[in-house]
Design brief:
This protein is of the alpha+beta class and about 80 residues long. It has one domain. The chain is about 35% helix and about 20% strand.
């Protein structure tokens, strides 16, 4: 039973991570765990916050939903984390 719960949790985490891919700007910025990243060099896209943190800050500017249920957007300067 514990194995089944563990596998279910891992599956849910994997789905949550993959759920950022393909989202449009408004949906991405509102989705927990996702960040909308813009760049003049490549098309803007939705990334997981973990992937967004790995993007070069000189090239990308990312924004995401504020943690804790707040309304609005948090602009992340990725080099500051």
């Amino acid at each position: 039973m514990r194995l089944l719960r563990s596998l279910s949790l891992l599956l849910l985490l994997a789905l949550a991570t993959a759920s950022c891919d393909g989202l449009r700007e408004v949906a991405c910025a509102a989705a927990p765990g996702c960040a909308w990243c813009e760049s003049a060099a490549v098309p803007s896209a939705c990334y997981t916050k973990e992937d967004a943190a790995k993007l070069p800050p000189a090239v990308f500017t990312c924004k995401s939903k504020k943690e804790g249920g707040g309304v609005g957007v948090e602009v992340m300067m990725l080099g500051d984390e």
